[in-house]
Specification:
Elements (H helix, E strand, L loop, with lengths): L4 H36 L1
Length: 41
């Protein structure tokens, strides 16, 4: 494993990517849940 500024920047990029991915997964989940609720009524 590398150490130094490059590894810190890489891990920050990975964490940012994971946060964005999680955000879109939650957003998609909310949209799907709303659609399912609308169809069941």
């Amino acid at each position: 494993m590398q150490s130094g500024p490059l590894q810190g920047r890489y891990s920050k990029a990975v964490m940012a990517f994971m946060a964005v991915l999680l955000f879109f997964m939650v957003l998609g989940d909310i949209i799907i849940a709303r659609h399912q609720r609308n169809f069941s009524n």
